Amino acid sequence: MKKIGITTTVPVEVLIAAGYEPVDLNNIFVTSTEYENYIDIAERDGFPKSSCAWIKGIYGVCIQEGIDEIIGVVEGDCSNTKSLLEVLSLHNIKIHSFSFPHSHRLEDVKKEIQKFMNIFNVSEKVVEEVRIQLNTIREKVKEIDELTYIDGKITGFENHLYQVSLSDFNGSPEAFSNELDNVIASGKNRESVNKAIRLGYIGVPPMTGDIYDYVENHNAHFVYNEVQREFAFPRYKKAANIYEQYYDYTYPYDNEYRLKELKKQIEDRQLDALVHYTQAFCHRAIEDIYLKSQLDIPILHIEGDKINRLDARTKLRIEAFLDMVYDRCPSNI
Hints:
alpha/beta
């Protein structure tokens, strides 16, 4: 299968139906031991120091790894993607764009997905067949999520990892499905983790993956990963077709729509506090003002940049926040 890069979650059902292997460029960037090199490539080619590390990392991956075709989401994701695509086109990379319309009307979402199908010359019937197949895998990831927040047998990091991987199914839906079977079987045989503080992680997936182990060392446990869970389309059963599935997806749309699901998960998972992660130089950092005004729960906002490990200052802030939350927990009052 021919590989095609994606800058975030798109209707992968269309790409797989067209015979492509979607590759989430973010996942290559953040998991690579050479991640700093990808950023250096972008900065040598003129990307400013003050631009987002994710955008520079995606650019570096495309150049270094020989990605020759890419889909960028130009509405409903990063505000810099349009400029990124223009620069990548200078390197003879074939560019496609996709939009999650700001209107968030079902008819507009349908038009965008139909345009996407036309670009790749696939029918709705074939796309629906692929969607049904992929949703059997989404069900397994939903079970992993339940093993996290109900049974306490899957770690917050594992929960993050397997949900975020549904953006591209790790390049092979069949192999990924088998991997999930092993994770579920192993998880069921573990002892439950009982931490004092139940945390929710909101915002974009982190560059600083060590945040999960760090909070667990301080008697806390992430039992909710907001955006990663949205990448997994947990409410897929409510969707009659691919249009409804991508309409019922909180990440690319307005915060008012996002809040409904956040509030539901805070209650369902009995969360004590939230950690809101944003990336330096990203417009999404401003959303923290809105979220704190609308959610009645302690929220710590932390910001990542180019380093893929928590720095000392952020660790200190997390530790102080968790101490405060612990003192507020009903069992400790």
